[in-house]
Queue: 3 jobs
Job 1
Amino acid sequence: MAENVKPRVRVPRDATAGEAIVIKTLISHTMESGQRKDGDGNTIPRSIINRFTCEFNGELVIDVTLEPAISTNPYFEFQATVPETGTFDFTWYDDDGDVYTDSKDITVG
Amino acid sequence: MKLTRRHTLMMAFGSVVATMLPMRAFAALDDEVAAFTGGAEMGSEGITLIAPEIAENGNTVPIEVSAPGAEAIIVFAAGNPTPAVATFNFGPLAAAQSAATRIRLAGTQDVVAIARMPDGSFVEARQEVKVTIGGCGG
Amino acid sequence: MKSLLKTGVAAVAIFAANVAQADEEANLVINEEIEITVRTDAPAHAENLSTIYSGWVFRSDETQSLQMDDFENPGMIFVDDAIDTWNTVEGSEGNSCASCHGEPESMAGVRAVYPKWNDAAEEVRTIAMQVNDCRTEQMGAEEWKYDGGDMLNMEALLASFSRGLPVNVAIDGPVEAMWELGRDIYYTRYGQLDLSCANCHEDNYGNNIRADHLSQGQINGFPTYRLKNAKLNGVQSRFRGCVRDTRAETFSVGSEEFIALELYVASRGNGLSVEGPSVRN
């Protein structure tokens, strides 16, 4: 797998039922575009995260297709509705077949 | 966010590299837009694209898109060799059809966002981002 | 305030006034919690400055805002990385950093006083030198490369636990000779462009060079996550880039000259807050 891939996600710890919350995600990844050349003039092969999804208790919040024009260490910010207490699952899909995940619990009080 | 500062940058010696990329990039864009819209007419109401007027570095340009009610928003960098940037598909638990990310721009160019609405219509927003070249630090 | 004409004729041509300076008034609070001093009275030994400013002040609104929340600042990913390293046993002695230092919180305040004198070794130590000393002498582990990825991640961790605390580097006593060497280097003109650090960062901060808005070249924000190369950057690597831009031969990272220069430049920022890992262009 690509080295040292590390997600960093912020979800509030609690919310009221139906509240809209802001989620921020970062992940360390070089996002090699496939358009750069190495010192010898050879093209460095493309190696990016090509898809990111966020689900809450199995239901979709956002599903993003990433192209090589997304910056190194991809960042996403978006909003989710929280109907009940549960878990957000975050998944990043690498070109090389690896999948990186993170999850965050949230309590509806 | 205030977007109008730094016009003055342009005064600097040898200042801004405001080169547009070759025209072939636009042909590529047309094809990709058609693939998303099926060639449909596009409105311009109900979609917002926030991008800096001048980016300090083309490698990391923060952008934000929003189109209330949209099913999906696709973002293009019109002047990049490969214009596609990202597609945001919103699920039932998206509290708003909006998202922010950071993108690479190979020089000054238009950023384009197109939203697909549930009734099958499309709306487009577009903004030019000037990309500057910094002075120091290799 | 500043005169464009202070520098030589050749130099004048490359600077231009940045008329719109609204962003120079902005204040930095990280996570709505950590208040960062980005402008304050200059210390007496920075005799040509009245106010000192963090480099953050000179960046665009968009770049500034990337540093206001740890979940938007990509530099913080590498702090997370370093926390794992902190707790990992390495080397012949069976130690991790945590074995001796406990939680990384114990490092609060440390970053603010480096570079500093080490009595036992009788030398001025940058924080990178101290970390490598712990690795080789305390852990029996390999040195990390100066300004390499592992070292910068750890430096980011150390800086992050001192954020908001004032830089307070000692300039007298045993460090005095090194500090003076650093000051000499700061005011020496280098390269075909015949420019010193001061010509750019003292005489022309607030102006533009090409399209870049010049700061005072302070180092309170290091390591810096640069948008340009999308990774953490070390102090001395940044010095090297600046010297190279004058088309001069540069000193090497980790050299006596750059250690002296780091000490001197750090002391010009006494009173600003530790800010690393910061975000710059």
Note: Residues 1 and 98 of chain A are 6 Å apart (CA to CA).
Job 2
Amino acid sequence: MMFRLSSYVIKGIWRHRARTMLTVSGAAVAMFVFCFVGSVQEGLERLTSDEDAQRTLIVFQENRFCPTSSRLPEDYARRIAEIPGVKDVMPVQVWTNNCRASLDIVVFNGAPPKQLQTARKLELTSGNWGEFESRRDAAIVGENVATRRNLKKGDQFSIGDLDVQVAGVFTSPVPAEENLIYTGLEFLQYTRGLDSAGLVTQHEVHLTENADPDEVASAIDEALRAGPVATTTRRKGAFQTSTLSDLVDLIGFAHYLGYACVGLVLALVATTTVMAVQDRIKEHAVLQTLGVRPARVFRIVIAESLLLCFAGGILGTAVALAILNWGGLAIGAEGVTIAFRPSIQLAAVGLLVSASVGILAGIIPAVQAARTPIVTALRQP
Amino acid sequence: MALVEIRNLSKSFSKGDEVISPLVDVDLDIHQGDFVSLMGPSGTGKSTLLNLISGIDQPEQGTIVVDGVEVTKLSRSKLADWRAANLGYIFQTHNLIPVLTAYENVELPILLLPLTAGERRRRVEIALEAVGLSDRADHYPWQMSGGQEQRVGIARAIVAHPKVVVADEPTGSLDTKTSDQIQVLLKRLNQELDITLVMVTHDSEAAAIASRQMILDNGKIIESIAEHANGASSEQHAQMVRGK
Ligand SMILES: Nc1ncnc2c1ncn2[C@@H]1O[C@H](COP(=O)(O)OP(=O)(O)O)[C@@H](O)[C@H]1O
Ligand SMILES: [Mg+2]
């Protein structure tokens, strides 16, 4: 029965095209921001909750923050490997163009190519491992960086004192990895300005199946206390959040921005619906005189509000997801990055929120439309 | 038994301290096929009476029974259902839905009835035919003249084959020529389709085409016997009009 009156609902929305467009675009903008904020939030959560973040340890120089200031002997790797619970140790040299928070951060990780291939689940979408291993200045580029910097296999890429040849582009199940550029370890160690022969920024430790990450971490720091440089070992997730702590606070705050957007859509759509209902108090009374039940008038108003809000939600969510997918955006600091990624979950939340807000926004005007005494409404000029 | 039986019907409104009582203990019987005209000075309660018969307003006291159904007892939802099937309402200002075509406006009330799409189409076509607007089915209200709009309004009121059609000054906002046409149309619908009509009017000429003419004044209904076309006995008349 609702469907039989759907033509009336659609035509009613179409009648006020200008108002409809404004409301839909307003809702779309707010839902766009909502999804964007949500995606940053998701990116941050992934940094700490991923299996990779929980089961991998990062050994860093004690009390150092920016990757350029952490200098550990490369041969610590051998000592760490002897500790029980350690499966594999990968020395990593990190280079970044910007140690402070930035939207256009470029982070290089230098590591032995063979180890890289086994330790990380990278998937080359172009190029091959053979070429990466054979050339000293070869680099494989994460898809996100490739998109942002418009890089493809065979390109030459220079930044600061670094000059690399793109040997391939990779994707990774860990989205933040796609913000990285990998090179061989020596290549980064011998870069002018770094002078890190025999030194690395950090060691990445992979654990055996049932090792306890925190126990192994303390064991590592204990074992290396006697060495030339003291270390701090943490789970990768904890390491990343503490590195990004300033950003984490900011992102936590952005969260409220997301709620504010929902409030904004609610206010906007409710206002439009209230106006639309007030315009048509008499029309709704005529409908009831013709035999339309009050409950159906209620549903007609809800349907209008829902359609407007949902249309805005679809639009805003779609645009946000498209930009997240093709924009290659990332934010980061001190060599750690957060990936902004579209996700099914995000899309579902965006659509669900806009639908619920649409219904919520319609309730008060719908009650008003259904409750107004017919005769009073008909007597209006 | 009368089609519409109104008993002891009273309605008053309070405006601040002042209480207006347009209807006081009104009794009235309307029979199947009657064409009743209702006249009276402005503000005497004519519209109020139609609204009570239509169930869009509630009386303070009294009952209205239409074809055995006591409409004064129904809930708002039940009344809506009852109106969809049993009552046609012709407004003074047609009150067509501006975004719908003539066809869609006429179809609207029967969308609420359990009819097949084919049966709906047939009924809408017959109703538009009856008011002489078959060729305007696809026109929107703003594309039609006042008289045409009112005829669409009439088609909308009869499309569901209601038991009673009420019309509140249906020619009140039309010029003389157009209003004459509308009156002829209403008379024809009453005679040819046997539609029971209750029409409020200010125009004594319009009232004259009705089979029964009544006047509402001081909260009471008086039937004018002289022009009583129905041949009702004076006894019946006395029974219907219980004045002070
Ligand atoms: N909702 C209302 N509130 C207050 N007074 C009303 C209301 N509806 C009607 N009235 C009053 O009741 C009287 C009868 O109104 P109405 O039935 O519209 O008269 P008519 O149709 O005969 O001109 C008028 O005096 C009008 O002011
Ligand atoms: Mg009136």
Note: The two ends of chain B are 25 Å apart (CA to CA).
Job 3
Amino acid sequence: MAGSNPNAKPMNLTLKVWRQKNRNTQGGIVDYQVKDISPDMSFLEMLDVLNEDLLRKGEEPVAFDHDCREGICGSCNLFINGRAHGPEAGTTTCQLHMRKFSDGDTITIEPWRAAAFPVNKDLSVDRSAFDRIIQAGGYVSVNTGGTPDANEIPIPKEIADRAFEAATCIGCGACVASCKNASAMLFVSAKVSQLALLPQGHVERKTRVENMVAQMDKEGFGACTNIGSCAAECPVGISLENIAILNHEFLAAKATSNNLA
Amino acid sequence: MFPDSKIPEGPLAEKWDKHKFNVKLVNPANKRKYDVIVVGTGLAGASAAASLAELGYNVKAFTYHDSPRRAHSIAAQGGINAAKNYQNDGDSVHRLFYDTIKGGDYRAREANVYRLAQVSVNIIDQCVAQGVPFAREYGGLLANRSFGGAQVSRTFYARGQTGQQLLLGAYSALSRQVAYGKVKLYTRSEMLDVVVVDGQARGIITRNLITGEIEQHAAHAVVLATGGYGNVFYLSTNAKYCNATAAWRAHKKGAYFANPCFTQIHPTCIPVSGDYQSKLTLMSESLRNDGRVWVPASKETAERLRAGQIRVQDIPEEERDYFLERKYPAFGNLVPRDVASRNAKEVCDEGRGVGSSGLAVYLDFADAIKRNGETWVSQKYGNLFDMYAKITGENPYEQPMRIYPAVHYTMGGLWVDYNLQTTIPGLYATGECNFSDHGANRLGASALMQGLADGYFVIPYTIGDYLAQTPPKPVTTDHPAFKEAEAEVRARVQKLMSINGTRTPDDFHKALGHIMWEYCGMARNAEGLRHAKAEIQKLRREFWSDLKLVGTESEMNQALEKAGRVADFLELGELMIDDAYNRNESCGGHFREEYATEEGEAKRDDENYAYVAAWQYVGDNQPEILNKEELKFENVKLTQRSYK
Ligand SMILES: Cc1cc2nc3c(=O)[nH]c(=O)nc-3n(C[C@H](O)[C@H](O)[C@H](O)COP(=O)(O)OP(=O)(O)OC[C@H]3O[C@@H](n4cnc5c(N)ncnc54)[C@H](O)[C@@H]3O)c2cc1C
Ligand code: SF4
Ligand code: FES
């Protein structure tokens, strides 16, 4: 606890950071030293310090994705010491704080690695494959207007709560980065379950799961072999139960497909 | 002459329906002949882009994010208001209208606010139909809570993640239209200018943030849904990328900017912990329902506490000052945001603040824990307590939280008429980037409502009226105005790249934020504002002569992106100062120390300042022209707010 934090002294650290000019060039690890890092800093604030330093020296700052810095937008995506979002469970990179590290540590920072997530530059990757999977069916087909009164669709609280849990996926891609097959099953299953659980999603449940899974395969994500690293590393706790729901939905859909194409 | 605000005639409750009947419609077969650009894919932009595409228009949607799902809207926690009256506790469209007008300290337009309250009910229906998992009661119907001191329970929520769920709903509707080919989505694409052809908005200039390419895009109309400008203060609860560039560029092309000094400062945020601080985290307002706000009663005790000579637990009850309960016995810890924020600043200014910086007050749950037990508290606020512990490393069950006010929301923005059209015909503004509905202070859970009202239910009607009067001929980028605008954008980018000075964009941004917070933050006065104006002008000159960038403009260059945004903040900041200086009254989030009641509360001047200040750009380094839109109140009586 701060104040009583045994680690409250500023730290000096060695960073091993992946640098890559753009999608078409080879990258490599470059070493940097950062000094006087406060344990109360967030991990990204520590990178801000490095970047300000680099820029002042006339060197290119390290590109990385971030925005809300509150653990909700899903932008931040660093692979820290071999783990997606770093050492603290249930925590996005932006919510990780330097008090989890010690003076003198060496920290390796890499981008997500997956064929479907090409590197833009340094630590920034292209996750538009996730958008295309949602475009393939991650919605209820209703137009604006003409919808019934909200309370005409009662939904048991337990179901609503489960759907909500699935819907909290932040689309960060840590599941893919943590999976040795680079499978996107946890991400896809979160959306499929949310909409399969809710009555609003029932009309299109078969085509939805078929189309989303087809798009997932097309994007080059790997197969799921039920290892579970995805759920273990997911910062918001999306559970493996969703993958079971997806598999069930998928088999049911295949058995009685509405996809006439 | 002030441009017409186009408020429809007739009784308040009938204006919108009459207007919807009177607007011109585009023939269904012709809709596909019109192209509309929507910049921004947060709540306001995604809802507009999806709805316009559903109607048949061809939409091009732009965002600087890598996906629409990342927009700042995702971070909204508390909830969304709607006058459903599901709780049978006396809510109505009129009550929501009244609360919003009063909460905004009588500086918003009656007609706009009434429409907002009217369509609020449709928003909830729409979101539920999309599969947004709002909180529910055991009977399966939707749950509500009362929020931000409202006397009725009209707030719909999805745990502490309402913005996320609403945005994912709008994103799903948008994604569906992308799949149909009706929306073309441009991600990591930053709008850097509006193109105006013969007085009408006809396109935009963008920079691809991955390749650095500058592009021209043409359309029959342009909608800006680019969010608020709270980051002019550097530190705020906004996401790091939130910026004013789109709105500011539109302003410089002729769109008036309204009430720029109206900013909201939220009382319950985690305090600054050091110079490296990059943003501030909001702790939900709901904490004030059970937490008690206090500081040591004397400066001496506070000093000993800060020096670590005593612990907070050692301070006896009689040496604690529960200042909100003391000063506002009727509302206590639940006074509105602006009042709570100002009082926290006051006690810290007196030297009674806590934490190492002295810029914090306690929010204490000891009584709630004693009364109801730790389990009860953790069930109600567990996720917030965890977040606090993660960020500060302190355990809020054992010692009180430290909180301090932080910039949160900007009520000011692009001036729009009743149709949400700016002063540039064909250019519209929706969501937080316009000024329209919140007056001088926004009520909790009303920004999400406004963004979705604008996007789902207002712009689809009002833009049709404009397009119906525009010939359905294809628009192209052939007009010389496109080349000119592109050349200007290129020149500016190259200028930024070529300064080759010594200071980073962040360095300038922090310096600007410091000036704004000190002189145009929670309390303002004429002398401070004059000083701040000179400081900003000086800082701007330094920026353009001493900025340091590396790399090139034809690749991903995040420092360059940042520099462009800071350059615009440096201009907007000065306009905010001018606006605050001009408004010789205190109202809502704008507190001028010279205009206070004897008890130190905000004192409005309805006789002289019941107007919207709409600023008109006339040229670089020239004073902007102030245009006044008089506000007419025909349905509410203006009263002084009192929370004693
Ligand atoms: C921490 C926090 C909590 C909040 N909680 C609540 C709450 O509980 N209830 C409530 O009602 N309100 C809340 N608010 C306020 C509310 O979230 C915002 O006002 C609202 O979401 C703004 O939505 P928007 O669509 O207007 O803008 P944003 O969501 O900010 O979206 C802006 C969009 O514009 C794009 N953009 C901007 N500039 C450009 C450019 N130049 N080129 C291309 N694209 C651009 C961005 O990429 C983004 O897509 C909260 C705000 C904060 C900070
Ligand atoms: S399932 Fe978890 S890890 Fe995967 S994208 Fe969603 S939030 Fe990230
Ligand atoms: S920056 Fe938004 S989740 Fe980390």
Note: The longest strand of chain A covers residues 28-37.
